[in-house]
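User: Structure please.
Assistant: Input sequence and predicted structure:
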Amino acid sequence: MLNGGGDGIIKTYKIKRVIILLTKMEQAIVDFEKDRVIALAESCLEKEPICIGDCPAPLSKGGPNEYFSQSDYWWPNPDTEDNLPWVRHDGETNPDNFDDHRILVRRMRKVVCAEAAAYKLTGDEKYAQQAVKFLRAWFLTPKTRMEPTLNYSQVVLGRFDNGGRRGGIIDTLHFIELPLAILELKKSEAMDNETFEGLKAWFNDYIDFMMHSKLGKGEFDQVNNHGVAWVVQATLYAKLAGREDVTEICRNRFKEDFLVNQMAENGTFPEELARTKPYNYSLFIMDLLSILAYHLSTPEENLFEYKTESGKSMQTGLDFIIPVTKDKGSWPYHKDVEHFESYPTRQIYLLLTALNRDDKDLLDFWMSFDPEPTDIEVRRNLAMRQPVLWF
């Protein structure tokens, strides 16, 4: 974990008899976030878990505990009587697709991470109890739990035998903050050892699915944001599961592939620029890479500063993306086909870069954005929402 550079002044933050050392930047984030986090956690205290097993997917060929979704950019075929097979319109989201399980994932993540963050800030067990209740229902209770697989994610009707697609692995990107929440909740009375070990086992099983299933291996091999998102997920899940073997694979992929092969010399990502939403995807992939640089750095090696043999680095990407984030009017490529007006938002890369650089101006810029954006596209792509859990 990085603690920032520069003159980061160490402060102490006393939480339930535990002294946590915070840099000046981290303390500023805590001070800024505390009221929002506690208000959100309070609003979630009366909510009850609604899980995969509670929400049947009529089109799914899987069991009642298997996650199901339909691919965003696929639509009924207007040229056939039965509208099959569906056809692709890149960047244009079909609003009629089954999206219930995706929404439930985000709802669960919102509750668990808000409650865990509030517990971290206050030490109040009521927040931990609510978070653990949701975690047990979602991952452990036989009737409602989600299977640790994604065999039916981003289905396209009439294609792939109505099974899942490799690209569906990205649907669980919203799980990446859960390991941080679980590790924080382990300090609470609400998280007994059996529950913790059960959660750890679930994420270990899911890592195995990602690494060894046909869909998971296919996603790992992708040369755009999907491949990066696979590594982001594996990095965070390995943190909880204790899988150093996976962590090393992820670190090598960051250093030897993403910066070398995906990033162009000018800091752009050609695969993302080729899409119909190049601005959105350019921000998204820098968010993902910043998460990797933050979580895969070690005391001996800061990946924000790592350079390839040709001189490319995170800084190369930041030199391109920061100016067009601060001034969208300077974006030199075509506009996104949808949601262009909704970006930028509370981009993760802004926060993590600010922490790494000890850059108060960049932190202030991140703080200027709405922490609870209403645009569904933004909410779908913004996977880390409780920064107080990250340090």
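DSSP finds 14 helices and six strands in the chain.
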